[in-house]
Amino acid sequence: MDEKIPTIKEMKKSRQVPDELKARVKEYGRIKKEILKALETKRGTIPEIAASTGLRQEVVTYTLMTMRKFHEIEVEGLDDMDEYYYYRKAEV
Amino acid sequence: MSQDNEKYDAIVIGGGIAGQESALNLADSDQKVLLVEKDLSFGGKMIHLSKVFPTLDCSACITTPKMSETARHPNITICTYSEFTEIEKLPDGTFTGILTRHPRYVIEKDCTGCQDCEEVCPSVVEDQYQYGMVGRKAAYVPFSIANPRIAAIDIENCILCGACERACPADAIDFTQKTEKTRVNAGSVIVATGFRLFDPAVIRKYGLGKYKNVVTSMQMERQLVPTRPFNNVLRPKDAKVPDNIAYVLCVGSRDLTIGSPVCSQVCCMYSVKQGQLLMGALPMADVTVYYLHVRAFGKGFEEFYQQSRGMGVKYVKGKVGTIEEKENGDLILRYEDIRDGSVKEETHDLVVLSVGMLPNPEAGSLFAGNALELDEFGYVRQVDMLKNPASTSIEGVFVAGTASGPMDIPDSIASSGAAAAEALSYLKRKR
């Protein structure tokens, strides 16, 4: 069977990726890595992850919930005060 | 532009619940219908709701069978991610216009909706279908119950890495796709372009955007559906389970200061509904609704409102002046207690702004020379509201659903049936 020629090359001829977009993708990757590092050995709530990474809480919430959507993070029950959920890295 | 004209008996513009209802009514009467939807999936706003009032039926359970029926109907052709514009009336009473199909960069017939492209895509942007509470990829299936359930590439946020194309097992990614324009002729047109939601960020005193724990009612609606953005109803700032939630009614409705004097008709009841759903989702939570008037005017609405009071939802007749954030993310509401005229403060840990409906400005620009008349509020003008409520300023063009003004789902469906009946009558007269 003939192998399909990648059409992305055609798009690259007519379109440039803005530097701002490249930076945004890189930043998301960095934040994701920080969160995964914080959850490497133990579970954590979002305030705990924010405290250990130095990231703003809303940034952790947005990124972690996005990672959860893509099955990279799992939920592990509520804390003793029934206020915050614990999250951990998903098992591959 | 394609040289071959496509011909239909009727074109329905807008694939929400109103557009689908009109299209189905016409198609069941043996009329060939083109349903044009500008989004990647049809289904409109209703497909994103949790439950409907006052019955608390599951919204998706009502919408998805209707979507399937629409998609499978032999007399209905659906064009998603498309627009129908530059519409003109011809001397014989029929209509012509330009159908623009935007490229998805995905071959529709080949995509299986497997989401392998989504998995490998490195670019994440705010998910508009979750109202910005989580991200989505640049290569994505819009949402789980989208119809058609096929992927699209958001080229504005694509870094052209080609990972999606390499990952696609069906070879369905095609970056060579271009915008296609076709001339389409039809005997009649139904405008079902729906409404826009008010953006409360313009009322700065409420702090939306600035204070992360101030959310809109659509964001809360998404938190209450099974396909919610978070794992439970949580505060967007720190993911705390809220236990003291406030609703502020009439945000973007009945407010001359922001140029929106019309009552949106649904905000009171969807807030009553969400209050009840929150009592179920978070049994320990307190829910307080700050209102000017509760307009429970429909069948079963007053009972529904009283039911929420019985469940423990607290109602305060008060006008909220400002919202300020405390260090822990809690919010201080300063409001006028209308019963005694005093100014009071109350602290809540999550505030929901019950946003109103606004007219969709696209309706006015569909026709060449903006020929379709709008009313003083910007909705499509109903020229004979009492006798022929679907008739517009152009004979042969009919309006369905919230394109003509705020209304709830049952009224929208009834209005769409009327539009279809009037369109059918017009088609028969002209033949």
Walkthrough of the structure:
The complex is a heterodimer of chains A (92) and B (431). Chain A contains four helices and two strands, in the order ααααββ. Chain A is mainly alpha-helical and 92 residues long. Chain A has one domain: Winged helix-like DNA-binding domain superfamily/Winged helix DNA-binding domain (Arc Repressor Mutant, subunit A, Orthogonal Bundle), CATH 1.10.10.10. In chain A, strands 1-2 form a two-stranded antiparallel ribbon. In chain A, helix 3 packs across helix 4. The longest helix of chain A has 20 residues. The two termini of chain A are 33 Å apart. The model of chain A has no long low-confidence stretch (mean pLDDT 95). Chain B has 431 residues and is α/β, with parallel strands linked by helices. Chain B folds into three domains: 188 residues, FAD/NAD(P)-binding domain (3-Layer(bba) Sandwich), CATH 3.50.50.60; 52 residues, no CATH class; 159 residues, FAD/NAD(P)-binding domain. In chain B, 21% of the residues lie in helices and 27% in strands. Chain B is built from eight helices and 20 strands. In chain B, strands 1, 2, 3, 4, 5, 10 and 20 form a seven-stranded mixed sheet that branches. In chain B, helix 1 crosses helix 2 and helix 6 packs parallel to helix 7. Chains A and B meet through helix 1, helix 2, helix 3 and helix 4 of A and loops of B.
Short summary of the structure?
Chain A is mainly alpha-helical.
As a whole number of angstroms, the C-alpha radius of gyration of chain A is 18 Å
Percent in strands of chain B: 25-35%
CATH architecture identity of the largest domain in chain B? 3-Layer(bba) Sandwich
Terminal Cα span of chain B: 29 Å
N-to-C SSE series of chain A?
A: HHHHEE
The total strand number of chain B stands at: 20
Largest interface: A-B, 36 and 38 residues
Shape of chain B: globular
The name CATH uses for the topology of chain A is Arc Repressor Mutant, subunit A
